[in-house]
Write a structure and sequence with these properties.
The structure holds two protein chains of two kinds. Chain A is α+β, with helices and mostly antiparallel strands. Chain A has three helices and five strands, in the order αβααββββ. In chain A, strands 1-4-5-2-3 form a five-stranded mixed sheet. The N and C termini of chain A lie far apart (81 Å). In chain B, a hairpin with an 8-residue loop joins β7 and β8. Chain B has a four-stranded antiparallel sheet. Chain B has a two-stranded antiparallel ribbon with strand order 1-2. In chain B, strands 3-4 form a two-stranded antiparallel sheet. The longest helix of chain B is centred in the first third of the chain and has 26 residues. The chains are: A alpha+beta, B alpha+beta. At the A-B interface, α1, β4 and β5 of A face α1, α2, β1 and α4 of B.
Chain lengths: 186, 186
């Protein structure tokens, strides 16, 4: 009789252990699922943040009084102001000017590409690099983490002529271990 | 023994029910939007900017000494003028050029320039798009220019963002003309 009771008790313990193990396994599966989901959510938010950073720089550039035609339109830039800005920051950069614009643009590369039709009707393009600051000084990668391109137009204030142009902003991020290059898409 | 087996079965049923309930609650969560708001904003800004810049651009329409500098908006307006009465052959508009043995009217010049810009810029970015210049006249309702010839964006199957630009027509042209650039991502 006592032998029979012992076997029954053992069986009940076995049942309980089995049930606890099952609950633990299911719990772990649920935890793994939620961990993966929150990781994906975090990556999405990080990607969106990079987008926002690049867009923010593009908005700042297109509203700079040093570059725009007038205060009404943020897609019109003055052709001669662009040329002057190009000379100021790339051809003969001064540390004072660079540090002033670094506060606005941080680690990014800003280029305006103008498109002009020649006499024969063919389209030619010309690049005007406005700003470039890479995070390599801090030992980081130089790959752009996000690129935003916006069509604009350049107005020549002398004769009022307007050219089609594209403003390209490449934003570099120095987050450790996060240098995946996103394809250039506007 | 039988009682223990029934208890074990009961526990298994409870665990299975809990698991099913968990997965149902997870799957009933609100699904993420197909296209993120930021992507839509970027694409719409790009499409809108493209059209505004395109209308502002000035081009030399006939080349050489006889050529004149014309705003794309004026070419588009002249193109609508040609098409407001049917058949269009009766009025060839203000801007006509002889390029070699070929004679081009405003519609053909507008189409040539727009196509070159679309190919040079959006095709290089690897963007899927469709461009349409449509005239809603009193007697005519037609596409004056579309590129590519077949619509690339089907809003029911692809995520798309549109830029629209209504052409300001003078009082002697009846109806309205609309430019639409639709950017879509698979």
């Amino acid at each position: 009789m006592s032998k029979h009771l012992l076997t029954r008790a053992q069986l009940q313990i076995g049942e309980s252990i089995f049930a606890i193990m099952l609950i633990l396994i299911v719990g772990m599966l649920v935890l793994i699922f939620f961990f993966n989901k929150s990781k994906i959510d975090y990556e999405d938010k990080l990607y969106e943040q990079k987008d926002l950073d690049a867009l923010e720089v593009a908005k700042i550039v297109s509203s700079l009084s040093e570059l725009t035609c007038d205060s009404k339109s943020n897609i019109c830039m003055d052709y001669y102001k662009v040329l002057a800005f190009e000379g100021l920051l790339t051809a003969n950069p001064s540390e004072t000017v660079l540090s002033y614009y670094y506060d606005l643009f941080r680690d990014s590369s800003i280029t305006v590409t103008s498109y002009e039709f020649s006499d024969t009707g063919t389209l030619t393009s010309q690049e005007h690099p406005l700003y470039r600051h890479l995070p390599e000084q801090q030992g980081a990668s130089t790959l752009p983490t996000r690129t935003v391109s916006m069509p604009i137009y350049l107005r020549k204030s002398v004769n009022g002529e307007a050219l089609f142009a594209v403003l390209t902003v490449e934003r570099f991020h120095s987050v450790e271990g996060d240098y995946t290059h996103q394809e250039a898409s506007p | 023994m039988r009682k223990a087996q029934i208890e074990a079965m009961g526990l298994i049923v409870v665990v299975i029910l809990v698991t099913i309930a968990l997965f149902i609650s997870i799957s009933l969560k609100q699904p993420q939007p197909v296209k993120k708001a930021l992507e839509v904003y970027t694409d719409e800004t790009m499409a809108g900017n493209f059209l505004v810049a395109l209308m502002e651009v000035q081009v030399e329409v006939c080349g050489g000494v006889t050529g004149s500098i014309v705003k794309m908006e004026d070419l588009a307006e002249d193109c609508v003028r040609i098409h407001q009465t049917a058949p269009p052959e009766e009025d060839q508009g203000k801007y006509r050029c002889e390029v070699g043995e070929e004679e081009k009217n405003a519609c053909e010049m507008f189409a040539d320039i727009t196509k070159q810009l679309l190919v040079e810029i959006l095709d290089k970015w690897g963007v899927t798009y469709d461009f349409a210049f449509h005239y809603y006249g009193t007697t005519v309702d037609e596409d004056l220019f579309t590129y590519p010839a077949d619509e690339q964006c089907d809003p029911t199957t692809t995520r798309s963002a549109s830029g629209l630009q209504l052409l300001a027509l003078p009082y002697d042209i009846h109806g309205s003309a609309l430019l639409r650039l639709r950017i879509c991502n698979p």
